[in-house]
Design goal:
This protein is of the alpha/beta class and 234 residues long. Helices cover 48% and strands 10% of the residues. The longest helix has 18 residues.
Length: 234
C-alpha cells in the first residue's frame, strides 16, 4: 500500500469530486451542526483525497475524496467564494484500498448505511482484501463482516409477506404465525477486549450441548442457552 506517502496542499474545488461508494450518511440536523461549527471556528480539519485511478473510475476531476465528504459540502456552503480547500493527498494503489480507507474513516466518526457498507465489503473482498485485513483496519469482527456480505444474498421480502414472516398481526386481521423453526441472521458489535471472553463462554457451552444440532447452528444455540439461563435466574 502507498498510504504512507502523504502531502498537504491547497487544492482547487473544481479539481475534487466526492467518491460514489461512500456508505456514510449524515442526518440533516447533524449537517446543520457541522455548518454552524464551521461558521464559528472555521475549517480546521483538512479533507483527505487521492488521485483518481485512471481507467478504473468515471470521475472527471483529478482528485476524489477519501475522507471528509460532509466537511467538503459544508465548506462550500460556508465559504461559497473560496476557490480551494485544504487537503491531505494520499495516493492509493487500487479502488479496493480506497474503499476500505473510506469505510474505516467513517467508522471512527459515525455510523454508515449498513446496506451500502455491505456492498462495499462485498466489492473489496472480491478484489482480494481478506477478512483478516478488514478486521485489522476497521476493528470489525470477521464473522460480522461475513454476515453483512451474506445478507446481500437474502431476497427482498414483498411488503405483503412481512407480517406473515414476523408473526405480527397488527391491523391486518391475520392469525399470528409460529416462526420458531425459521432461521434468522443476527449481527451485533462488541468491543475487541470482550470478544475473547464471549467466545470462551460460548465454546464452553457448545462443548456441553447434549442435543443434535447442526454445526453451523451450535454457536447460536450456545448463546441462547446463556441468555435463557440468565433470564431463569432473574
Amino acid at each position: 500500500m502507498s498510504e504512507s506517502v502523504k502531502e498537504k496542499a491547497f487544492i482547487s474545488l473544481s479539481e475534487i469530486s466526492p467518491n460514489n461508494y461512500n456508505p456514510q450518511e449524515m442526518v440533516s440536523s447533524k449537517f446543520k451542526n457541522l455548518i454552524a461549527s464551521m461558521r464559528k471556528y472555521g475549517f480546521t480539519d483538512p479533507i483527505k483525497i487521492r488521485p483518481v485511478l485512471e481507467g478504473k473510475e468515471e470521475i472527471s476531476t483529478p482528485y476524489v475524496i477519501v475522507d471528509g465528504e460532509h466537511r467538503y459540502r459544508a465548506f462550500m456552503e460556508v465559504f461559497p467564494d473560496s476557490t480551494g480547500i485544504d487537503c491531505v493527498i494520499t495516493p492509493m494503489d487500487n479502488l479496493a484500498e480506497a474503499m476500505q480507507a473510506t469505510d474505516t474513516a467513517n467508522r471512527i466518526k459515525g455510523e454508515p448505511n449498513p446496506i451500502k457498507e455491505a456492498e462495499l465489503f462485498d466489492y473489496i473482498i472480491k478484489e482480494g482484501i481478506s477478512y483478516e485485513e478488514i478486521e485489522e483496519l476497521s476493528g470489525l469482527d470477521q464473522i460480522l463482516v461475513e454476515n453483512m456480505v451474506n445478507s446481500l444474498d437474502i431476497p427482498e421480502i414483498p411488503e405483503d409477506d412481512i407480517d406473515e414472516l414476523s408473526g405480527s398481526s397488527i391491523d391486518n386481521g391475520k392469525t399470528q404465525q409460529d416462526d420458531s423453526d425459521k432461521k434468522i441472521i443476527v449481527s451485533f458489535s462488541i468491543y475487541a477486549d470482550q470478544k475473547e471472553k464471549i467466545n470462551k463462554a460460548i465454546n464452553m457451552i457448545d462443548e456441553t450441548l447434549d442435543i443434535q444440532i447442526p454445526d453451523e447452528d451450535r454457536k447460536g444455540e450456545a448463546l441462547f442457552v446463556m441468555s435463557n439461563k440468565y433470564l431463569e435466574n432473574q
